[in-house]
Amino acid sequence: MHPLYFPQINNSGEIMLILVKYMFVLAGFLYMLYAVLITKQVSIMSKTLGTTNSTQNKVLAFVHLVIAILVLIYYLLVL
Amino acid sequence: MTTKTAGTTSAEKNGLRRHVDEYSEVMRKEVPSEKHTSAFLPKPKRLTIDIQAESEQIVLVLRRHLITQINSVLIVLVMLFLPLLFSASQIFSFLPLSYRFILTIGWYLATAGYSLECYFKWFYRVFIVTDERIIDVDFISMIYKDVSTTKIDKIEDITSTTIGFLSSIFDYGTVIIQTAGTQQELEFEDVPQPGKVSALLNEMILEEELEKIEGRVQ
User: Fold this and answer.
1) What is the pLDDT of residue B56?
2) Among A5, B14, B97, B118, which is most buried by a count of CB atoms within 10 Å?
3) Using CA atoms in the order B190, B119, B125, B67, what is the torsion angle rounded to 10 degrees?
4) Angle between helix B97-124 and A54-78 (nearest 10)
């Protein structure tokens, strides 16, 4: 059996899981900031270049942001 | 916002500026584009730029040829199938099931984010030719945007190059524009039909000179 198999976790295993948990939450938070950046930049670029796809692009970026926020909330609740 | 492309403007009505179809053999054959998701948009309708002057017409909008995005498409495909590989190889088997599920969700979200970034970078990185100037909108990353312009009468030399197997097959290449301004060079990289773009720019330079001779300069 793998030495790090979950049922056999000892103190160091638990510490590692806590670390992994914080890493997930931190990654989720950073990803949410990245999604905010995309949304903001798409909004700026839509002003620079106005096309028939501007609304579609903004919606796409916004939906991505909403999903990123939901995933972060899920990480906080489940982990 | 008003549409200033391929239509009759007040300046044209006054006889100051001719419509692009009147002097360009290249543009006369082109049908105005309605959809804005193409890499070659001649006389685009309902497309505006924030630095556009009232009487300025957008003649051509260029993006990188779609085939140049093949690398990004391949990366996304690999990213999509990577969790299956990890699942089969049991690399993350030491993690509890809930953690593995969360890792998979995060991975697919990152894949979606990368795809979006690639699409937006392709979509907003444009080369615009108006009847007055050339605009290069660089959207290199999500935090870097650069807009450079040069007037048509500042153009000194135009070179179009098509290098490589794919470029020849799909007819795309780079158009290099030497200018007399402080910015010495503008590059339209990997744009479709570089020969046509070069021919259009030459026609526009001639028209600009004709405008000066005939006193139609605003």
Assistant:
1) 87
2) B118
3) 10
4) 160
Spatial distance between the Cα atoms of B6 and B46, rounded to a whole number of angstroms? 10
ipTM of the predicted structure?
0.81
pLDDT tens digits along B79-119? 999 988 887 777 777 778 888 888 899 999 999 999 999 99
- CB contacts of A41 in chain B (<8 Å) are 120, 142-143, 145
B114: its two tokens: 């990368």
Hey, what are B5's tokens? 């492309």
pTM of the model: 0.84
Tokens 């926020």 map to which residue? A69
The arrangement of strands across the sheet holding B126-130 comes to: B40-42, B58-62, B126-130, B133-141, B144-151
Burial class of residue B57 (count of CB atoms within 10 Å of its CB; 0-12, 13-18, 19+): buried
Q: Which residue of A has its CA nearest to B93?
A: A5
Query: How far, in Å, CA of A39 to CA of B154, rounded?
Result: 36
Spell out the long-range contacts of B27-33 with Cβ–Cβ below 8 A and sequence spacing 24 or more.
B27/B59, B27/B60, B27/B200, B27/B203, B32/B5, B32/B6
Q: Which of A27, A31, A49 sits opposite B126 (nearest CB)?
A: A49
Largest CA distance in chain B: 80
Tokens read off for B61:
């909008």
User: Scanning the structure block, which residue is given the tokens 């054959």?
Assistant: B29
Strand ranges inside chain B, DSSP E: 40-42, 48-49, 58-62, 126-130, 133-141, 144-151, 155-161, 172-179, 185-192
How many interchain CB pairs under 8 A, A with B? Answer: 98
Chain A residues within an 8 Å CB radius of B113 = 31, 34-35, 38, 64, 68
Question: Which residue does chain B place closest to A50, by CA atoms?
Answer: B48
- Expressed in percent and rounded to 5, the helix, strand and coil fractions of chain A are 85, 5, 15
Instruction: Answer for the pair B118, B66: CB distance below 8 angstroms, yes or no.
Output: no
